[in-house]
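Run log // design_07
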């Protein structure tokens, strides 16, 4: 039986937070995310007659949201693998941004830096270096808990193609973090988690915080695929809109988005 617009709106509100998180991880823009969530609702309301099974509402909404986001993101370049290096350099050259972040950390109850939060934030940014199809498959299957067949339906791909994109995405992300992340590899070049902890939590021992993180405890014993799984476990546990540090992380994300827009424009 077809949902009434009123019943659908109530059901949509149940899934709105999940859609926002998914779309933010795709777009890296809170403003674009809100536009896409609203567009998803409008598109869905206009197509209620195509919803055959109310139990599949979540997948149906994610399908609509995904294709709206694909249309939007195909107009943009993917971010480079060294996005965090570029944004770190830009931050060091932008005292105003740093001062805003410090003020947030000092005044907002939702801007307390945590290393786990930054692990999730780092994943969000670096994943935007993946080809779009790989990024989508990774998010839907590994982060938002859809089954393989559901991902295939959402993206209108064969299951074999979803498997291919998922394998390629996992391999690339595992290799990137193995080479870059100093938390899991002492030879890694990126120390931003501990550097930022020293800035925002000068009295807190970074090492004491690190040992609380399963991924860090497993470093040296687990292979890179398992370490990637543990990293994604952190990501699943942290909602960028409701976490204890979401104000600070969204502030960082807005900065990174501006930096990357400028960087990519200058590369043209």
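design_07 sequence
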């Amino acid at each position: 039986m077809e949902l009434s617009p009123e019943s659908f709106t109530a059901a949509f509100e149940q899934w709105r937070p999940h859609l926002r998180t998914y779309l933010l991880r795709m777009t890296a823009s809170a403003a674009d995310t809100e536009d896409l969530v609203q567009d998803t609702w409008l598109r869905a309301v206009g197509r209620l007659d195509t919803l055959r099974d109310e139990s599949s509402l979540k997948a149906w909404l994610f399908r609509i949201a995904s294709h709206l986001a694909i249309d939007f993101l195909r107009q943009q370049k993917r971010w480079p693998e060294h996005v965090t290096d570029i944004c770190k350099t830009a931050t060091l050259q932008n005292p105003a941004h740093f001062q805003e972040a410090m003020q947030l950390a000092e005044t907002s109850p939702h801007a307390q830096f945590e290393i786990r939060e930054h692990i999730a934030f780092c994943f969000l940014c670096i994943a935007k270096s993946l080809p779009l199809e790989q990024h989508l498959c990774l998010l839907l299957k590994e982060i938002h808990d859809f089954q393989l067949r559901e991902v295939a339906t959402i993206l209108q791909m064969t299951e074999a193609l979803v498997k291919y994109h998922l394998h390629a995405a996992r391999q690339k992300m595992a290799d990137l973090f193995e080479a870059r992340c100093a938390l899991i590899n002492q030879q890694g070049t990126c120390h931003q988690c501990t550097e930022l902890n020293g800035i925002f939590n000068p009295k807190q021992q970074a090492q004491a915080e690190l040992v609380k993180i399963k991924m860090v405890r497993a470093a040296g014993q687990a292979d890179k695929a398992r370490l990637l799984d543990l990293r994604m476990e952190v990501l699943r546990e942290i909602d960028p809109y409701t976490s204890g540090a979401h104000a600070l992380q969204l502030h960082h994300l807005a900065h990174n988005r501006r930096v990357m827009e400028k960087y990519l424009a200058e590369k043209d």
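The two ends are 51 Å apart (CA to CA).
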